[in-house]
Amino acid sequence: MKNLFYIYCISLFGFLSYVQPQKTLKKSISDGKEIYQDFCVQCHIDNGKGVLGTFPPLAKSDYLQNNIEASIRGIKYGQRGKITVNGIEYDGIMSQQGLDDEEVADVMNYILNSWGNKAKEQISITQVAEVQKK
């Protein structure tokens, strides 16, 4: 019986050391702001309004709110082709930035909670990892 208890404890310790708790939303947004400043601000501008007809707005973006998976995919793998944001069509290219899944989750959480956007839920690393390139 003692042996089973020791095996259980070792297994539990191993599992707990493998599982990483998700960041708080506040920390993810803070980290995402730094990533946005490094990778996104050049096109989407500091206030998230983008450049009309060239770079779509992220501020109060209907596309982001209604297309979470496609938005994650665009950040993770790049975006090419037509999208409609707030009634305006954009047909450009957004290059892949080389962000890992945690960085994609953080920048998504920042964007979805900035400039009048209201996220329905926190984007997790697991959620980003599940998004595949099409």
Structural features:
134 residues; mainly alpha; Cytochrome Bc1 Complex, Chain D, domain 2; 7 helices; globular
Query: Helix- and strand-based class?
Result: mainly alpha
H and E order:
HHHHHEEHH
CATH topology-level name:
Cytochrome Bc1 Complex, Chain D, domain 2
Strand order of the largest sheet: 1-2
According to CATH, the homologous superfamily is Cytochrome c-like domain
The low-confidence parts are none
Beta fraction = 5-15%
Largest sheet composition? 2 strands, antiparallel
Mean pLDDT: 90
The number of helical elements comes to: 7
How many E strands? 2
In the CATH hierarchy, the architecture is Orthogonal Bundle
CATH domain class name: Mainly Alpha
* Radius of gyration using CA atoms only: 19 Å
Indicate the multimeric state: single chain
Overall tally of structural domains: 1
**Overall 3D form:** globular
Distance between the ends: 52 Å
Helix proportion range: 40-55%
Structure overview:
This protein is mainly α. The chain has one domain: Orthogonal Bundle (Cytochrome Bc1 Complex, Chain D, domain 2), CATH 1.10.760. It has 7 helices and 2 strands. It has helices at 2-18, 25-39, 41-44, 62-66, 68-77, 101-111, 125-130; strands spanning 79-85, 88-94. A two-stranded antiparallel sheet has the order 1-2. A hairpin with a 2-residue loop joins strand 1 (79-85) and strand 2. Helix 2 (25-39) packs across helix 6. The longest helix has 17 residues, at 2-18. It is globular and about 70 Å long. The chain starts with a helix and ends with a helix. The mean pLDDT is 90.
